[in-house]
Amino acid sequence: MRTDIVHPGADKLRYEIREIVAVAKQVAEAGIPIVWENIGDPVAKGEVPPAWIRKIISDTLKEDLTFGYSPTKGLDETRAYIARERNFEEGIQITPDDILFFNGLGDAISHLYRNLNPHARILGPDPAYPTHSSSEAAHADKPHLTYHLDPENRWRPDLADMEAKLRAHKDIAGILIINPDNPTGFVYPQETIRAVVALAKKYKLFIISDEIYSNLAYEGSGMHKLASVIDGVPGIAMRGISKEFPWPGARCGWIEFYNRDKDKNFDRYAHSIVASKTLEVCSTTLPQRVLPKVMGDARYYPYLAKRTRRYERRAEYAHEILSKIPSIIVHKPQGAFYMTCVFRKGTLKKNQSLSVRNDLKKFIDLRLKGASPDKRFVYYLLASTGICVVPLSSGFNSSLQGFRFLLLEQNDARFKKTIKTIAKGIVDYLAS
After folding, report:
1. In this predicted model, what pLDDT tens digit does every residue of 196-240 receive, in sequence order?
2. CA separation for the pair 226, 208 (Å, rounded)
3. Which end of the chain is more exposed for a tag (fewer CB within 10 A), N or C?
4. What is the set of domains in the chain, with CATH numbers?
């Protein structure tokens, strides 16, 4: 074409969590059944909304207004419900005008970075969630800036590293936390969030807190939302129903603005996000109409507690098996349904492999030219066992070598078999 039509940051948009699916499908065509441990979709793993939630949805479909537009910011009654719920918690008070709905948090993330000044950067965690890190890198057309989550310290953020990055990069305007974290399942202790807020206040920054899994934190985890500790700092919290109901296909999420009145520049930024959403008219109406009815039902939070207890039992079993392998670092998560293994330095070497059919070995090796060591392990595990996990380095834009898997399998026997197969795969691969 006579003019380059590609955005300068286009090559930084990557989502290996789904990209690996194409490779897995080729493995499946070769006759190896796939165990999908890559995408955190509870429904795909058989965990569908209970009958009472489904009835609320079906009854709501009988209401004529369900088929119309919602207001740009979201349904008035739904935003009012969320504001009331938030204001019951200790901390900041918000109004319905501080809430903005999107078609899922992927849509919200896109808007956050798209409306950010191209020279303003967001400092995010390593390992990173790729929708955030890729969107931030593409927005700036530069590598994503990160602070370390320390696997040697149960995934706590390295606050000294965080502050060093803030001093070194004057263009950092905000700090991102994901709480509970994806991919590690780490839940930020209240004192740690307070420390991040203190850094934001010291360097005149705002905070983004992705809390999509906040209601799936385990009992006793000490989960605290940003709203409870924000302390006058401008901030944005991100929530949604995809994982909670669970209803990922609804594509329904929202953001909450905190302390817009404390900083004129942040208020203008928030206004630009709202204005950009106005150009799209509105977000999907049905899930917004359903949300207060489901979350306001007396059965809702006991239902979530039952699910999180099951995830915690899965995590305990996986930790029991995998922690016996000295060559990896693994911690029991405190929330959500993900778990991460990190290979200790020096354990991954060139030419390690697992037993794989010759035709699949050629197929896999062609896709591993120049790949990171953990990606090599993941692809060999896939071709050898059919288990599809995600490498940390390329899947989560991380400096660490490791992989993430799920705690979503509903069948106990299948889950235990998967974990034991992963453990054997690690041992055999490192011994090869």
Report:
1. 999 999 999 999 999 999 999 999 999 999 999 998 999 999 999
2. 9
3. N
4. 10-47+301-431 (3.90.1150.10), 51-295 (3.40.640.10)
